[in-house]
Amino acid sequence: MSQDKQLLDAVDYVLSEAKRQGAEADVIVNRNNSFSLKANQGQLDEYKVSSSQVLGVRVVKDARIATSYSESLETSSLDLMLTNALQSARFSKQDEHQTISCIDSKLTTDFAEIAQQDTTSADEKIELSLALEQGVVSLPHASSAPYNGYADGESQLILANTQGTFCQHFERSFSCYAYTLFEKEGKQSMAGKVSVGRRFDELNPSYCIEQGYNLARDLLDGAPVATGEYSAIFDINALSSLFGAFGSAFSGVSAMKGITPLGTKLGESIASELITLTDMAYMQTAWRSPASTAKALRPKTTC
To answer: Can you name the residues that pair with 106 across neighbouring β-strands?
Structure first.
């Protein structure tokens, strides 16, 4: 039996059994496969192949809910998972808002760019991994490349419920990275860069080597800056980290739970008028651009 058919059969079985036992349910399945390599002193230091799959269920019965999950798709394991969820639901607090209201929605990712075939041999991937480390240590004052590697992987997500909804997504990605430990005149600094792509040939190991090296070199003489007012240009990663610190404050879930001070600020100005935030597909090929997402998800019906 193929892995895809086994997943689909498991989803159908859990939903059918939940309905047979008088409950509504929704199911989420997450399956991941990954392959990674690392080099150390000119030799392959890590060759790792891994896979995982988890099927989770949320049951709703008599306005009571509970969840459970299983890493096994065997019928006995699925029965135990569902039994645990139904028994736990009996002791949970009734909540009229916990319902399954997404009816007959069919969503699938039908976008070839995010799931391109991988025809690259393992030898080619090993060659790239070794070249990352060698490229770094061949540069002046680069004593080592303590962090380097290559990775690729694929991910499958399935969402379904007893109301006829079935949604699925599949994607594949590739990445490589290299960090430089720069040493000169008794001082050290370290920095690195990452390259990602939807195909192996989209990776840019030279960028990882050269830009990581240049950044490590430039950081060597870095020192604390005196307190004052300065004009600043943010690196993209630094700006992302800055906004990330406030991410949970803008969460609807946080507002619902009353754990964000912004929960009562709807319609009010909360920042300087000098700040403008715009959510847009600035780059058509961006990893999570709205344009790609809209093109990838083709609904047959909507919730």
So the answer is: 166, 301
Q: List all residues 6 or more positions away from 244 whose beta carbon is below 8 Å from its beta carbon.
A: none
Q: Which residue has the tokens 């800056």?
A: 225
Q: What is the pLDDT of residues 131-177, one digit of tens each?
A: 999 999 999 999 999 999 999 999 999 999 999 999 999 999 999 99
Query: Distance of alpha carbon 271 from its chain centroid, rounded?
Result: 29
Judge contact between 63 and 47, C-beta under 8 A. Answer: no
Q: Are strands 106-108 and 166-184 parallel, antiparallel or unpaired?
A: parallel
Is residue 149 within 8 Å of 177, Cβ to Cβ?
yes
Rounded CA-CA distance 29/277 in Å is: 34
Residue 17 and residue 24: Cα distance in Å, rounded? 10
pTM for the predicted model, two decimal places:
0.79
Neighbours of 51 (CB within 10 A): 12
pLDDT digits (tens, 9 = 90+) for 258-281: 888 888 888 888 888 888 877 665
Tokens of 30: 């997450």
Task: Collect all residues with Cβ–Cβ distance below 8 Å to 300 and sequence separation of at least 6.
Answer: 106, 107
Contact present, 179 and 189 (Cβ < 8 Å): no
